[in-house]
Structure formats: structure tokens, C-alpha cells
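check this:
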Amino acid sequence: MKALGTSRSIELLGSLQTVVASPLPEIAGHFSELLRPLLGHSALVIFTEDCTGRPQKKAGDKAIIDEVTLPELDAVRRALAADDSDPWGRRAVIGGSDRPITAWTASTGALLVLTDPELTAAGAADPESTLAMIDRLWQLVATSIRQQVAAAAPAYLQDSRAASAERAKLIADLTDAHSTTLESLLAVLRAPSVSAEAARQTAIELAASAMVSLRAVSDRDRSLAEEPVAQAFARLRDDLRPLVRFGDLDVQFIEPPANGRALPGEVAHAGRAIVRGAVLALVEQSGVSRVRVQWDCDGSNLLIQIRDDGAGALTADSPGVSPLTGRVAALGGSFDVQATAGWGSELTVSLPLDAPLAPLSPAAEWGLSPREQGVLALVASGARNKAIAAELVISENTVKFHVANLLRKVGASTRSELAALAR
């Protein structure tokens, strides 16, 4: 870039090294610092589906980064897909407000958004080259994010799994709360006592639209958090293709059932990384010419089996194998190595698809939804239907509906018995 001298270019490369070497949670902050001398901005947001637990990485104005949502970022990505000719001069709703942005999509599919962009004196000297340079820097950062996820340490996998579970619970609570509210609103507006037909019809349409939107948010989050097992295996084959194409290794792939249960994102990423590491460990042995990789899913676990045709001398302590045990342990899985002299070695891995469950409370054992648990807690406190309705901002009819369900699920015959069992 003409506007940058040699010393500034060296400084920029040093800053880029800091960004790509940073832990995943710190990348957004360091990348924001790197870009500010070229392009001022109020916030930087990265959205990458490689990081299933925490797909957003953000830095800057908390009023923006605390409020930005996945639907907003999806809308920006769709706009870029429709027209990516110029990142400058765009506007989008980010953090709940319409504001100017610049945005780029990386080859990995990751999205970078800068809000309230303003070229600095250095960047304004050659705006076109400045934006082109930011695009190239972003491609490198996005690639480093993918590589970090592929080689993530056990601690990151544990954090990712915890974040996925936390997000799933929040989505479930949000869906339950809003669905109940909207269902109650529809019931009231459809009541014969409501005379304002036009107002009622408009309100019904608005409420129905809101329910569709809410379900779309839930479905979008689910698609981000999960990866179909066949698709995950296809990505694994792509990862191992260089070994097949440029080496003498014969890699045989045993396909998983196409209709198997979808894998949580962190399990799919970890499974691919474990297989890559295991294959590399196997081919480091002399005499290995063939490796067979098999995935399967029993509905509760991802089952991985990797076998070679080597001398059969591999152990769990062999170089390249021992680091894999930490990854497997981080996800609560099992890892086993069996070797038979003259016949080869076999690595067997089992990764549970669901995070370990906390001890169940009595309410959870009854299979209650979050809303039903809230109603039950208030019933146990002695509150009547009117007070429960006011506390939860729902109608009394909805409270009665939930209480009837609670009586059925808990096996109580009266409200007093229900409260006693809950206590």
C-alpha cells in the first residue's frame, strides 16, 4: 500500500502476528487495535460458525456489542452475498440501531463488521488500497481462527461445550416465555368479547408474525450449534485430502449413516481434529501404507475408529497420540489404543453428543418446561392464579392451563397436594 512506509508496514505485520497468535476470546480486541490506525470504528464484530460455542467475537462500544444479534449479522451476510462489490457506504441494523458499517466475508464464511467507520488520515490517502488491505488482513485472521478451532486445547473445548449448553438453555427459555405470551395474546384477541374487528385482526397478524420470527431465531441457533453427521464426515475427508493426493497413503473412508443424529458443533470440530492428529501419528510409523477411518453415531455418541496396516507398535503414550487424550477427556469421551504385532494398530474414540447433565431437581425429573417450573414455584409459595398471572405477565387462563398440566405431570390430585410435593 502506497500510503504505508516501510516502518509502518513492519509495525502492521507485527500487529497482525499479535492478532493471529492471540487466544480466540482476545482476537477481536487485538484486531480492532490493528485496524484503528487505518479505519476508525465504534465496534468490531466477528461472526464465525467455526466457533460453535461463542460464534461472535466483539470489541468496542458495549452499547453495540452487547445488543448485536445473530439475525442482524445474518442480514448483513445476505446483503454481502447479493452485492459484495464495495464494502464502503453500507448501512445495517446492528445492536438494534440503523448505522453505517463496512463489512467483509472471508473465504471461510466468517463475517467481519465495523460500525461507524471513518477513514483516518493514513487510510484516506488511498481509500481503495486501504479497504483492499483490510480485506486481505481479514482473510488471514479468519483463516487463523479456523486453524485455532481445529487445534483447540481441551480447556477451549470445555468452554465451548459449556457455552453451547448455556446458549441452548437461554434459547429454550426465550422460546417458552415468548410463545406462552403470544399464545395468550392470540387467545384474548380471538375472544368474542373483543369488538374492534380491524384492531383484533391486525394484532393477530402481528402476534403470528412475532411467533414466526421467534421460531426462526431458535431454528437459526440450532443450525449454528449442530452439524449433520454426514456433512461433518465430508468435511473430514476434505481435511485429509492432501494426504491422499500428495502422499503414498491409501486412506479408506467408511461413511456414517446419512440420517444419523446431528453432531453438536464442538463435537464435530473436535472429532475432525482428533482424526487428523491420529492419522498423522499413524503415518509417522514406518511401513504404514493404508489407513481406514470410520465414523458412526449411536444416537448418544460419536464413534470413531482408525486402523492402520503397520507394525502394530503404537501405544497411548506414543508421540502424536498422547496429546489426543486431553481433547477426548475435555468432552467426557473415551480413548483406547489396541495394537497387534504384525497386524497394525487401532484407535477407538467415543465422544458423547450431550454435555454431562447436572443432578436433576424434582421439577426436572417431572419433565417440566421452564415456564411450568416458574408456575410451580409460585404455586408452592401459596400464590393464587391472579397473582401468578401478574408476576409472570400472562393471563389467568394460561395459568390455569399450566396448573392443569402440572397436576397431570406430577401426579397430584389437588392444588394443595401439588404445592406440598413441590416443597
Observations:
- The radius of gyration is 27 Å.
- The chain has a mean pLDDT of 79.
- Residues 300 and 354 are 7 Å apart (CA to CA).
- The longest helix spans residues 154-189.
